[in-house]
Amino acid sequence: MVALDLPPALVPQFPRRDGPARAGLADTGRAAQPLVLARDRVLAVPGGLGALLPVAGVQRGTVVAIDGALGSGATSITLELAAAATRVGEWAVVVDPDGTLGGLAAGEAGIALDRFAVVRGVPPARWATVVAALLDGVTVVATAIPRSVRPSDARRLVARARERSAVLVAVGAWPVEAALRIHADGVSWSRPVDGPALLGARAFRVSVSGRGVATRAPVEVLARVG
């Protein structure tokens, strides 16, 4: 074997993999990202629900946790947030483990059905993987929370929503942090002013907590009907 002494200019230069080199690469990547104005990071939510939220909408890249008893209006609130995405030409999806959500209810909530999907039959053991995959390409991902969800899986989904600038709407007992928490406190119906209908407008009582939200008692929000 013959050893050759190459001039420094001809010695192969391999990429550095130490900590400072990785940090420098990350800084370069952040600097190369396009500037996103604060208003462009907000998904506007119109109507009474939006009036209760900071900046009249929800921040992209965050988690909105919704809870409430059966029949309290939690599903209506969820569909309102999904409608906010399709209203501006983006996609929304609902992970529906019970198979109870239909297209009629989604359409009545104002969702554009050509930009809306429902995913059924997700095993609890695969739930976190499926939701993470949906966050990669869908603006609003709404899902019921399995009882078996682990905090570590929930935290990974928080990070995935932030990385993808998506909104995760978690319905049920969300075990970790959330930018907004919406509690559905019940639904009431008013009597119609005229006509043959037996029921008039529907309103659900909600309370909102989170960053930038003033503490207040539950407020009634008029829901879309028909």
What is the total domain count?
A: 1
Read across the widest sheet, the strand sequence of neighbours is 5-4-6-7-3-8-9-10
Per the principal axes of the C-alpha atoms, what is the gross shape? Answer: globular
Contiguous uncertain segments of 5+ residues: 33-39
CATH architecture descriptor: 3-Layer(aba) Sandwich
User: What do we call the CATH topology?
Assistant: Rossmann fold
**Binned strand content:** 15-25%
CATH homologous superfamily designation: P-loop containing nucleotide triphosphate hydrolases
What does this structure look like?
It is a single chain. The chain has 6 helices and 10 strands; from the N terminus they run H-E-H-E-E-H-E-H-E-H-E-H-E-E-E-E. The protein is α/β, with parallel strands linked by helices and 226 residues long. It has a single domain, classed as P-loop containing nucleotide triphosphate hydrolases (Rossmann fold), CATH 3.40.50.300. The strands form 2 sheets. An 8-stranded mixed beta sheet has the order 5-4-6-7-3-8-9-10, with helices on both faces. Helix 5 packs parallel to helix 6. About 3% of the residues have low confidence.
